[in-house]
Amino acid sequence: MARTFRVVVWLAVIGAVGYGAYATRDRWLGPAEKLLGYQNAAAPGDQAQGGRRGGQGQGGGRRSMSQFSGPVPVLAADATTADVPVYINGVGSVKALNTVTVRAQVSGRIVAINFVEGQDIKKGDVIARIDDSVYKAQLDQAIAKKAQDEALLAGAQRDLVRYQLMVKSASGTQQQVDTQTSLVAQYTAQVQVDVAAIESAQATLDYTTIRAAFDGRTGIRNVDVGNLVSSSDATGIVTLSQIKPISVLFSIPQQQLARINAASAAGTLAVQAMGNDGETVVDNGSLGVVDNQIDPTTGTVKLKANFPNDKLALWPGAFVNARLLVETLKGVTVIPSGAVQRGPNGTFVYIIGQDQSVAMKSVKVRQQDDTLAVIADGVAPGDKVVTTGFARLQNGSKVQISTNPDQASPAAPSTDSNAQPVAENDPQNGGAGTANASERPHRRHNGQGGQGGQGGAGSHNGHPGQDGQPAAAGTEGADKSGGSASNNSSATPTQQQ
C-alpha cells in the first residue's frame, strides 16, 4: 500500500513539473533559442501551404514558420578563361649553401681577432692570427739545413770530377768513382728533403694567419685574444655560413616524382619560397637537385632548391613552405573556388540564367586551390555562377545578384528589451528588414497564435492568414518573438593537385 502511494506521489510530481515547464515555455524558450542560435529555414514545400498553416495557434496550436518569398540575394561571378600555374607544395627547411666551423690548423695563442660578429666577409679575408714566432724559427732552421746540405753536395760533385780524371790517367780506380757518384746522389736527395722541409715550415707559418674559405657571414665568436687554440678544438673560433645564395631542402610525396622528372626534362623548374601566411612569396629560386633515393619510412623524396636571397628573407635553420612550378595550364575555364559545391552525386555549381533563376549543374574539377577552381567540364566561359548564398537555393530558385557581401550572408538577430530575438522587419518592434532575413519557428504569447509565415499573415488570435495569401517577405511572416539569421556559409573546398 505504501509503495503504491509513493508511485502515485511521484507521478503527480512529474506531471506538475511537466505542466509547469509547458506553461512557462515562453519564458525560457526565447533566451535558449537565442543562446543556441536556433534557426530553421522553411522547406520549399512548405511555402505553398504557409497561409493554411500560418494561423494554427489558437488553443495551443502549432507555431508558424516565417518564410522567404522573394528572390534570394546571392553573390555571383563570371566564369573566365585564364592561364593557371600548377604547383607541387612541400615543407622543408632553409640551409646555408656552405657552412664551416673555422678552426686553427696549428696550436698557439690567439694574438688578433680581425672580424666583428655578424660581419659579412669575403674569401681570403683574415679572420684571426696566431703567435707565429715558433713557426718562423722552424722555417729558418729548415732553410739553414738546406744550405748546409747544398754545400756538401757541391764538394762531393767536385771530388767526383777529380776521381773521373784520375781514372782516365790510370792514377785512380773505378771503385773510387762509383763511391763518389753514390755520395753525390745522397747529398742531392738530402737537398730535396730540405726543400720539402722548408715548404712545410712555410705552410705551417701561413696557418698562423686564419683566412675565410668563401664569402659568408660570421656567427658568434667562440674565442678571445689570448686564448690557446689547437686543431682538436670542437667549438672552433667562429662559424662561417654562406647565405647569399642560400638553399632550401624540402620533401614531396613520391607519387609526384615522375611528374617532376618529366617537367625537369624540359628545363630548370622554378621554385617559390612562401611566407607563413601561405600567400606571400618570400623569394624566387630554381630547383637544384632531386635526391637519388626515396625515404622508405615517410614515402617522400627530398629536393634542393637554390635562392639568391638578396633581401636576406631566408635564414638558415628556418622552416619554410616551398612550391614547385611543374606546369602551366593554358586557356582553361576558371571560377572562384567558393562556387564549387559538393553533394551526394559529386561536385556541382549553381548557374544563373537569363531569367535570374538558378540551375544546378554537375561539373568536373580539374584542379582547385583556395581561390580558383579549374573546370574541365560543366561550365563555359561567360556563365555566371553563384559564389555566396546557397542556403535557400534549389533548382529554379529566383535570385537577386547583390554587390554587397553582407546582403548575401547571414545577419545577426536584433533583440528587444527582454533579450528576445526580434524579426528584422517587424514593424511593432522597429526592426529594419532586409531581403536576407532568416526564418525560424515562432511562439505564441498568452495563447495567441503566431503570425503567418511566408504562406500567409497570421493573426494574433490564432486565426489563419488573410485570404490565405502569401505575406510579403521581410514584413509579414515575423511574429513578436522574431527570428534569428540563418547561416549561409558554404563548405570549404579541398585542394586538388
Task: Tell me about this structure.
This protein is an alpha+beta fold. It has five domains: 38-70 and 402-497, no CATH class; 75-83 and 331-401, Beta Barrel (conserved putative lor/sdh protein from methanococcus maripaludis s2 fold); 88-94 and 239-327, Elongation Factor Tu (Ef-tu), domain 3 (Beta Barrel), CATH 2.40.30.170; 104-131 and 209-236, Beta Barrel (OB fold (Dihydrolipoamide Acetyltransferase, E2P)), CATH 2.40.50.100; 133-207, Helix Hairpins (Orthogonal Bundle). The chain is built from seven helices and 22 strands. The protein has helices at residues 2-23, 25-36, 44-47, 50-54, 133-168, 174-207, 257-264, and strands at 72-78, 80-102, 108-113, 120-121, 126-130, 209-211, 216-218, 228-229, 238-253, 270-274, 281-295, 300-307, 319-336, 341-343, 346-352, 358-362, 364-368, 372-377, 384-388, 399-401, 414-415, 421-422. The strands form four sheets. Strands 1, 14, 15, 16, 19 and 20 form a six-stranded mixed sheet that branches. The chain has a six-stranded antiparallel barrel with strand order 2-9-12-11-10-13. α5 (133-168) runs antiparallel to α6. It is elongated and about 150 Å long. The model is unreliable at 35-66 and 409-497 (pLDDT under 50).
Q: Number of helical segments? A: 7
Q: Which bin fits the share of residues in helices?
A: 10-25%
Globally, the shape reads elongated
Q: What is the total tally of β strands?
A: 22
Query: What integer value in Å does the Rg equal?
Result: 45 Å
By helix and strand content, what is the structural category?
alpha+beta
SSE run = HHHHEEEEEHHEEEEHEEEEEEEEEEEEE
Q: How many structural units, i.e. domains?
A: 5
Note the beta-strand portion. 25-35%
Q: Largest beta sheet, briefly?
A: 6 strands, mixed
Q: What distance lies between the first and last C-alpha atoms, to the nearest angstrom?
A: 76 Å
The mean pLDDT is 77
List low-pLDDT spans. 35-66, 409-497
